[in-house]
Amino acid sequence: MIEVRNLVKFYQSEPVLRDLSFSVAPGEIFGVVGQSGAGKSTLLRCFNGLEPYQSGSVQVMGREVARLRDKELKELRRDMGMIFQNFCLMNRKNVFENVAFPLRVWESHPALPKRVRRFLGIGETADARTRARVMELLELVGLADKRFERVQNLSGGQKQRVGIARALALNPKILLCDEATSALDPGTTLDILQLLQDINAHFRLTLVVVTHQMEVVKRICHRLLLLDKGAGLRLGRTEDLFLSPGGMGRFADEEYARLPSGVNIRLLFPREIARQAVIAAMARDLGLSFPIVGGKLEHYIDDVLGFLIINVPEENLDTVYGYLREKNLRWEALDDA
Amino acid sequence: MLEALLGALSETLYMVFFATLFSSIGGFGLAIFLILTGPHGLRPRPGIYAALDAVVNLLRSFPFMILMIALIPFTRTVAGVAYGSTAAIVPLTVAAIPFMARLVEGSLLEVDPGVVEAARSFGASDGQIIFQVMVREAMPSIVLNVAVLAIALLGYSAMAGAIGGGGLGALAYNEGYIRFRADMMLGAVAVLILVVQCIQICGNRIYKKLR
Q1: Which residues of A touch B140 (CB under 8 A)?
Q2: Which has the closest alpha carbon to A142: A178, A70, A195?
Q3: Could you tell me if A74 lies within 8 Å of chain B, comparing CB atoms?
Q4: Does the interface ipTM go beyond 0.90?
Q5: B115, B122, B210 ranked by CB distance to A77: nearest
Q6: A48 has a chain B CB within 8 A of its CB
Q7: A297 lies within 8 A of chain B by CB
Q8: Does the distance separating the beta carbons of A170 and B121 come in below 8 Å?
Q9: The domain containing residue A267 runs over which residues?
Q10: Interface contact B57, partner A, CB < 8 A
Q11: Tens of pLDDT along A50-77?
Q12: Which has the least CB within 10 A, A133, A247, A251, A314?
């Protein structure tokens, strides 16, 4: 669906994207993660030509973005919806008109007032089609009853629903999400992610999700690209990256920067181990006790997985290592902070 | 005296109305060019923008009296005569166009760039973005700026009395100041205050309605 090869982009002489190569498969939810300033949003804007790039290639649905002419670029954009962190809705229009706007842009006589169009006998069927399409979209995002509401009066989550409906108006093949949940509270974030997953499943829509929120990536992304200062650090299946030792580098660890001194071991719980009481069993088998100093159990797409960090005294280290190897658990020793 | 005031008022309103109308149109057009070619515009053209920018600044730095006198030959060509209310509309308009252009440029720059980007993201053309997104979103603020423009023109129109434009300013000066008619002066000033109030209230009302 999207093929990126050796992509390089500069702002003046500052490199913002350094030699990226990856591809996004049809129907998948592809995540681009990284800290702010890593170049995620810029990368996303290279896909629909909102940002130019200097070398390398970005092919979207077989078309090289940089080589498209004005009209072709518009047609490409018609096939790609986009949603934004700040929703970017038109405040002076109501919900209905915001969703209808992309359709009006692509109508053949959008600029003429209704009365003129009626006089000329054009645009009537287009109007009916627009109305039906907008209502269908508003039903989908659950805002049909708010159609005459001004967008200023909506909550953040509702605004993003309007944004999603607008992005889907032209039946795109790809949906670009630029930090779409970063301005929302945790509960609303989950609702919006659920909606995005439903859309992905029902319409076989390809999603590219740019975010700095780990929960978002883990919850919905099938595969992901980890960006650091414009360079691709990791690329792979979400589960593999999160569960392989060091897979997400420092990125996932940041919340656990303050660990007690001594040796801290991170135990990873992939699917097959998650339901066993590993820690309790180890404590019992070895006759040792150790504090749990950090950890997280989370939903990866639809499984409970995660990790725990335990603090082990020097003298018991070998015993513990031996046990972990013997039981074939996944683990890593963390560097002293 | 009432008759003199009413006559002067109608001349003032005549000048201000048409000057506001023409300079709104001209200033609006110029603002669109400034926005299009500006540094963050849809079609950045640094050269064209710098030239337009310089012309706008140049025209705005002229004292109105001097501009009015310098424009007399031009006024005669356009209006047929060089004095009178109709003739005064010409220098008023020329002076107000760059002013209005700056005000509208400011209004359009206030439009959230994200909304413009969103419109680009689903394939809107530059024309659609300018007229259906930017102008539409900026409309309340543009209306307020038209009120600012009309009030500024009211002040200029008083000076336009100098080339026989007539109006309340001319009445206050010729009758009130030169002929020591304090009542005439006060009357003219009172009417001017009323007109300013009316324009501002109208502007605010429309602004609230549009928001």
Answers
A1: 92
A2: A195
A3: yes
A4: no
A5: B122
A6: yes
A7: no
A8: no
A9: 263-334
A10: no
A11: 998 989 999 999 899 888 888 899 999 9
A12: A314
Decide which of 3.30.750.24, 3.40.50.2000, 1.10.3720.10, 3.90.1170.20 is the CATH code for B2-210.
1.10.3720.10
Q: How far apart are CA A51 and CA A11, in angstroms?
A: 10
Whether residues A318 and A227 share a domain: the answer is no
In a domain, A256, yes or no: no
In a domain, A248, yes or no: no
- Evaluate whether residue A29 is within a structural domain: yes
Per-residue pLDDT of chain A (337 residues; tens, 9 = 90+): 899 999 998 888 888 899 899 999 999 999 999 888 888 899 999 999 999 898 999 999 989 988 888 889 999 999 999 999 999 999 999 999 999 999 988 876 656 677 777 777 666 666 788 889 999 999 999 999 998 999 989 999 999 999 999 999 999 999 999 999 988 888 899 999 999 999 999 999 999 999 988 888 888 999 999 988 888 888 888 888 877 766 665 565 555 556 677 788 888 777 666 667 777 888 888 888 888 877 777 666 666 677 788 888 888 888 888 888 887 777 877 765 4
CATH of the domain at A313: 3.30.70.260
A160 touches chain B (CB under 8 A): no
Give CA–CA dist A284/A290, Å, rounded.
Answer: 11
Whether A207 is covered by a domain: the verdict is yes
Q: Are residues A55 and A88 in the same domain?
A: yes
Closest chain B residue to the Cα of A79, Cα to Cα: B122
Instruction: Kindly state whether residues A145 and A12 are assigned to the same domain.
Output: yes
Which CATH number is A101's domain given? 3.40.50.300
Domain ranges for chain B: 2-210
| Best to test chain B binding among A70, A92, A107 (most B CBs inside 10 Å) | A92
What's the structural domain count of chain A?
2
